[in-house]
Amino acid sequence: MQRFLKDNLIIIISFALPVVFILIILGIIYIPSYYVKTDYDFVYLTCKDSGYSNGEPICNFIKNNYRVENNKLVVQDIGQEQDINGNKILDKDENKEIKFFKHNNKENISTELTLEEVKELNINSKMTSEDGYEVVNKNSYGGPFSSGGERQYYLVKENLNKKVNLKLPNNEYYYGDNNYKFLGWVK
Fold first, then answer.
1. What pLDDT is stored for residue 41 in this prediction?
2. What CA–CA distance (Å, rounded) separates 157 from 132?
3. pTM to 2 decimals?
């Protein structure tokens, strides 16, 4: 066995070296995400619709009716006779499927909440949590054989980041920007 190792040392090194480099690169990429830990969860809303008004998704108008003031969720009443998208259906009568979620950062899971449950939460509406984390929308490159990148959300602090899974009401994961609104941090 020693003779085999001695005679074939160059061949063994030539096969082992790329494996070692790949393991080092994987470690550099994935190990930092284990250090992304915050004591705060965050609350967000999603909106599902198919309408447009002036080239902009209706959800952009509707989700602006929800905001945080004095650490509590405030709902702005939609005008009784308002028809933003001009489809001859009053906005109050359209089902926009607005859902609220609390994202548990330790388990990377979002749980649906009712409007009443969200109104009871103490929400810090700052974009950055008290321990320095932000939820950031980034473009993720899909690799050389993909059809392009996709928008994904990450929990970010300085150079550390970790992908977070946000959910649409139909339990599909969604990484777009039009149907998502960050409301704030909760402890």
1. 93
2. 6
3. 0.69
